[in-house]
Design brief:
Elements: H1 23-38, H2 56-64, H3 67-70, E1 74-77, H4 84-92, E2 96-100, E3 110-113, H5 115-120, H6 125-128, H7 131-137, E4 139-141, E5 151-153, E6 158-159, E7 165-166, H8 172-182, E8 192-195, E9 218-220, E10 225-227, H9 245-250, H10 252-264
Helix pairs in contact: 2-4
Length: 265
């Protein structure tokens, strides 16, 4: 990871929707995307995405061998392509699966999927594990309609062995987890896991964590399982000071929660 952003291919100096909030993390993401591309370790162009990586299927199988997976009955998973094998595995094993609506644009901002419901609708598990199909065939649910979550899978662009992580920079994963905790659906000890390519693992010093950031407990690649034993404290609910004005404007459930908080004061 020695090359600087100035040396990256021109396509990697492009901005995403969420560039500019944290310069060092912007730089790190650009490096990771470039590295994956250079080493043919991504499936499709990784830039601007939670990168779909070579070995995602094997990483999902390795995750499925862990006790935290085997004991989990209800799983929350991100909607990105590299976690398709994770979502498929969860449904195949009869687990209840929650997936966030992309960009949290609905008040009912999670989709619930179960093998039983899919079978009743005559929809294949393989089809429903793809995010756009899940949105079409799953059931939109509010927080009040959800079951407590036993295991959380998040997508990452980069992850550190001490538990630090970054996604695309939008902060959706942290917001989702904070809201789930507000509603008692995620606990202080609910494990948080990611599956990534080994090239996405970086030194902890590259991933400074802020008060509202949720750290990883486990990192799984096609080659190894890392238990982070993270020392980062877990946030307690929503940190309103860290929520950006455009997030409040674009995410209906945040506005509802803010109104409720204001009315209760």
């Amino acid at each position: 990871m020695s090359e600087s952003v100035a040396e990256l291919p021109s396509s990697y100096s492009m901005k995403t929707d969420w560039t500019g909030y944290h310069h060092d993390k912007d730089e790190l993401r650009a490096e990771i995307w470039s590295l994956l591309k250079q080493h043919a370790a991504s499936i499709g162009d990784p830039f601007g995405h939670i990168p779909n990586f070579v070995g995602a299927q094997v990483a999902a199988e390795r995750l499925a061998n862990l006790p935290i997976w085997q004991q989990a009955k209800t799983i929350k998973c991100n909607p990105d392509s590299p976690q398709i094998p994770v979502r498929m595995r969860a449904l195949q094993e009869g687990k209840r699966l929650y997936m966030a609506v992309p960009r949290l644009t609905s008040t009912r901002c999670f989709v619930e999927l179960t093998a039983e419901d899919l079978q009743r609708k005559n929809i294949s598990i393989a089809e429903s594990a793809i995010a756009r199909q899940a949105l079409a065939c799953g059931k939109l649910v509010s927080f009040a309609e959800m079951e407590p979550i036993d295991l959380v899978i998040v997508g990452c662009v980069a992850a550190g062995p001490g538990g630090g992580r970054t996604g695309k920079g939008a902060g959706f994963a942290d917001l989702e987890l904070a809201m789930l905790q507000e509603f008692g659906l995620v606990q202080i000890d609910t494990p948080i896991v990611t599956t990534v390519h080994p090239l996405q693992i970086v030194p902890d010093s590259r991933l400074p964590m802020q008060a509202h950031d949720w750290a990883l407990n486990w990192i799984v690649t096609a080659e190894e399982v890392i238990e982070t034993n993270t020392s980062y404290p877990r946030p307690i609910g929503l940190n309103w000071d860290s929520i950006r004005p455009e997030q409040l404007e674009q995410i209906p459930i945040l506005r509802k929660l803010r109104e409720k908080l204001t009315n209760n004061q």
